[in-house]
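Example (one chain per record):
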Amino acid sequence: MTRTILDIHILQNVPPSNMNRDDTGTPKSAFYGGVRRARVSSQAWKRATRRRFEELLPPEELGVRTKKVVEALAERITAHDPSLAHVAAKLAEETLTTATGSSLETPKRKARDDGEGGAAAESKYLMFLSRRQLDALAELAVSASEGGDVAVLKKSLKDKEQKARARSAVDTRHSVDIALFGRMVADSADLNVEAATQVAHALSVHRSDIESDYYTAVDDRNEGSETGAGMIGTVDFNSATLYRYAAVDVDELRRNLGAGLKDDEPPSTPTAKAVAAFLEAFITSLPSGKINSFGHHTLPSAVLV
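Predicted structure:
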């Protein structure tokens, strides 16, 4: 089996900032090479990369990762057939249960808040589905329910052929972000998608100490005779030259995406577009934690691919 590995090495200067903090509000760090260094987690940068995809790729090429999958599918069912709006959530719940094997339930808080018990069920963990997969499930729900009958849909989904169709809907036509970053479906391991991309935690190339900024805010309605600040506090920050690294298994990405189906394009077109989008998104993205406080808008100083 061939493996084409694309390595991306980046050096990036970041001014005082706190773009990825821990549970105490302190910038993340790591002890490496005998000194404490600034660190930005891979999860933070993958999130920033996915947000950048929204500017580079059409919506149908991207996925949605949420516990509110029933709500997301219900919206697609309603868009497909507006007359089914009143039963869309129930149709979505039945379809997703069959397609993913996941148990869906209404959170207790939402069940209490909704007096009529109309809150949509949710999955117990974040579920990652492409918009095309949601559209395929919506089409299945509408056709198999024969006009929005939940009982008919439930009976139909017990049929082996319909059940296989539902499973296939969530296991084909993966979005670019699912193909790159992978997907885990805890209740159905056969629906897992092996990530084609590895992203390392960014580390400073030097020692980086954490500093604290003591700030005050003045009450605009204070009279001249009133002294003191309306609010005081501290915020931690650091600054660093970060080394960033990611690797893309292009062949795994191609297997995840599948071949292009358009007659006027070569089969490798989806993979080529995905690689180009990832390169631009990963290079130009930046985690946005505390960005209004620090304005850390910088681009890399050096990129080696």
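Caption: Residues 269-284 form the longest helix (16 residues).
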